[in-house]
Design a protein that fits this description.
single chain, 664 residues, alpha/beta, Substrate Binding Domain Of Dnak, Chain:A, Domain 2, Rossmann fold, six-stranded parallel beta sheet, 16 strands, 10% strand
């Protein structure tokens, strides 16, 4: 197995282009996260891994052992209190990251409505739909006027102190009744983060069940508040994604272009760079230094954003960010916020590459800072690109992996899935529901979240192939989506290669892959809407907890992933991770893995082995099918167009999208 600097952990790398790069002298010289893990020479702290290390006051840190009187916290805190506080603070931090991201998107949306950015309102249909949700009149009004009112109402929800968030009304009625009964309806987005941090301060909330009620409320404020606002307003401003073919992996870098990679999470920067790169003066400047033009490529979730909307390739995900630089072919890596490793500045030192930070919240030593000004976005973007162009002639030894570019189909927003399933005139989730009812599709599995270096990089692939082999349709977001794209699962052809016969038939009829790229990590709110639409379509229960669906974020790395997991559980979706820092407290672990189901109809689960994890997901889906009474073979009925018109949207057992003309 190829190694870099003697790193034994590189046996966990299976990605072809990464291995090819590491086989080169250039790649061998780069010290990566794999090397740093190896050189640490120690395993993870057992107290930290179990969640029983407490450092929220200055009497500690205290290491707690469950059930041992002498190993309580100095203040008397038990393992259940400490572990629940630590997990709640993870949820608060993850929600805060999504919230700050969303706030910037809303502010950019307002600026766009005022004409203060180079962007315009692209999706007027979605603008009108969101205006209706917020009770905004649209008749006879200009799109920018409507957008301004929508943006201002959305921004007000961050600081709102009382009432409930507007987006909650989009959830199934039974779901809303559950939240009201349990007392976890979010009041304001920022308020829930602040209250959760206060409750977990020393000497405040010391009942793990009560702590996690606020943990659920904070997470719901993220999923049904901040993240959903960010996704919907971003779609309105930059266009709702539609299916398109694109390229994923290191091979998307170009020898004869100025390569600029965009890394982080906020699409305002990336979209502005896309516009600026098309300007004639920037193109001419690139040609003056001997380049044919600007080649933009994404990294991490910013990569997913511009991949979905523009088809711009993704060079790498979170775990590949050092490898992208190790090619020596990148003139500048432009970063904003979240998931940017400090090591990238050290890797770049050995290259001609500059790391350019652009957000006042996120600076690092040895990087160049060029503040991205939203009210002067075009000039900011051009300044960044001019700097990158200036590095082109400095490019020295470099290596771009050849023939390792993976073709993917991306852009599966809720709206595009709706259209693909039902067609232009009857767009709906009816065909999906009916194919689940008739058993052609067993259910829906979501694979979301991050990647990291503790496990081999094929974990997502193992889970996804096991699911689709068993006729489970997979929806993916974030770095998990990039990982599955690199493995070839996001091509329509993958249905015939990997999927079970029922799922393959549906995919081939509709022309879609068995694994759908749904967006960045903030776009998990699309999955909430998709699940809600399945409920509203009928035939699969009255709330999300009854749907044959299950989610996982197996390689979760960031606190955001735990917040995402909790808002799915609180919304009624079963969620399985490979690990959680909770096993140090028996009662709390039992509550998370079993007791939470009494509140929301769903709970967490953990399983380290990826194949076993996939089968846990399949078992959970089968149990939902059994409860719905659909876990039996249905007669297959194919409907021509006349029959479909006659039923007028009503559900019939066995109705599917078989292969006959007019079946859509």
């Amino acid at each position: 197995m190829v190694k870099s600097i003697g790193c034994d952990r590189c046996n966990e790398i299976t990605n072809a282009s990464t291995l090819e790069l590491l086989s080169q002298d250039l790649g061998r010289k780069v010290r990566t996260a794999y090397d740093r893990i190896e050189s640490r020479g120690m395993s993870s702290c057992l107290f930290g891994s179990g969640g029983t290390c407490c450092r929220i006051c200055n009497m500690g840190p205290c290491q707690i052992i469950d059930g041992v009187e002498s190993m309580l916290g100095v203040c008397g805190a038990t393992a259940d209190t400490v572990v629940s506080r630590n997990l709640a603070r993870i949820i608060a931090a993850g929600s805060a990251a999504h919230t700050d991201h969303a706030r910037e998107m809303v502010r950019g949306f307002i600026a766009t409505a005022k004409g203060a950015t180079p962007h315009t309102i692209q999706d007027v249909d979605k603008l009108h739909k969101m205006a209706k949700v917020f009770g905004i009149e649209t008749e006879g009004r200009d799109k920018n006027e409507i957008a301004l009112e929508l943006g201002e109402k959305a921004l007000a929800e961050f600081g709102q102190q009382d009432g409930t968030l507007t987006m909650l009304q989009r959830a199934p009625k039974k779901q809303r009744e559950i939240w009201k009964k349990v007392g976890v309806e979010p009041r304001g987005i920022d308020r829930e983060v602040v209250e959760l941090m206060h409750r977990t301060h020393i000497g405040v909330d010391q009942d793990y069940r009560n702590i996690m009620l606020q943990g659920a409320r904070c997470a719901l404020a993220d999923g049904w508040g901040a993240s959903m606002l960010s996704t919907e307003l971003t779609d309105i401003m930059f266009g709702t994604p539609v299916p398109k073919r694109a390229i994923v992996d290191l091979g998307c870098l170009k020898e004869d272009h100025v390569n600029v990679t965009v890394h982080g999470h906020e699409p305002l920067l990336a979209e502005s760079l896309c516009l600026a790169a098309e300007q004639e003066d920037i193109q001419e400047l690139a040609k003056l230094v001997g380049a044919k033009g600007i080649n933009l490529a994404g990294v991490c979730c910013t990569g997913n954003e511009i991949l979905m909307r523009r088809g711009i390739p993704v060079a790498g995900s979170f775990i590949q960010q050092e490898m992208v630089l190790a090619t020596g072919a990148v003139e500048a890596m432009v970063v904003d916020v979240q998931c940017v490793m400090q090591s990238v500045a050290q890797v770049a030192k050995a290259m001609h590459t500059d790391i350019i930070t652009t957000n006042y919240r996120a600076k690092m030593p040895d990087a160049i800072h060029i503040q991205f000004e939203e009210d002067d976005a075009m000039n900011s973007a051009k300044t960044i690109l001019r700097h990158a162009i200036g590095n082109f002639k400095k490019r020295g030894a470099h290596y771009i992996p050849k023939d390792k570019k993976f073709d993917v189909v991306v852009g599966f927003s809720h709206e595009s899935i709706n259209y693909m399933l039902g067609g232009r005139f009857r767009s709906s989730y009816r065909p999906l529901n009916d194919n689940i009812i008739n058993g052609r599709i067993k259910g829906v599995g979501a694979i979301v979240g991050c990647e990291h270096f503790k496990y081999a990089d094929d974990v997502h692939f193992k889970i996804a192939t096991e699911l689709i082999k068993n006729n489970v349709l997979v929806l993916a977001t974030g770095c998990a989506a990039s990982a599955l794209g690199r493995r070839g699962l996001m091509r329509p052809e993958a249905a015939g290669e990997y999927a079970g016969p029922g799922l393959a038939e549906v995919c081939e009829t509709v022309g879609m892959p068995p694994v759908l790229h749904v967006g960045s990590c903030v776009d998990n709110s699309r999955l909430l809407i998709a699940l809600t639409e399945m409920v509203l379509e009928g035939g699969l229960g009255e709330d999300i907890s009854e749907l044959p669906a299950c989610g996982t974020a197996p390689l979760y790395m960031s606190e955001k992933a735990v917040a995402i997991g909790q808002y799915f559980v609180s919304s009624g979706a079963h969620v399985i991770f490979q690990n959680l820092p909770i096993q140090g407290a028996k009662k709390f672990t039992d509550f998370m893995l079993r007791g939470m189901k009494d509140l929301y109809g769903a709970c967490w689960d953990v399983e380290e082995d990826p194949v076993k994890l996939a089968h846990k997901m399949i078992k959970a889906i089968d149990q939902k099918r059994e409860a719905l009474g659909i876990n039996k073979k249905q007669d297959r009925v194919l409907f021509d167009m006349a029959m479909r018109r006659g039923i007028e949207g009503q559900s019939l057992p066995g109705m599917g999208c078989g292969g006959k003309a007019g079946s859509r």
